[in-house]
Amino acid sequence: MRGRARGPSPLPERAARLWRTLGAVFVLLVFVPPLLLLVSGSLTEPGLPPSPTPQLVPEPLSTTGYERALDLGGLLRASLNSLLVAVVAVPLSVLVAALAGFALARIAPRVTAVVVAASLVALMVPATALLVPRFAIFRLLGLTDTLVPLIAPALLGTSPLYVLVYYLAFRALPADLYDACLVEDLSPLRTWWRVALPLVRPVTAGLTALTFVLTWSNFLDPLIYIYDRELFTLPLALRSLSLLDPTNFPVFLAGAVIAMVPALVVFALAQRRFLHHDDRSEG
Question: Hey, CA dihedral for 112, 113, 116, 122, is it positive or negative?
Answer without folding.
Answer: negative
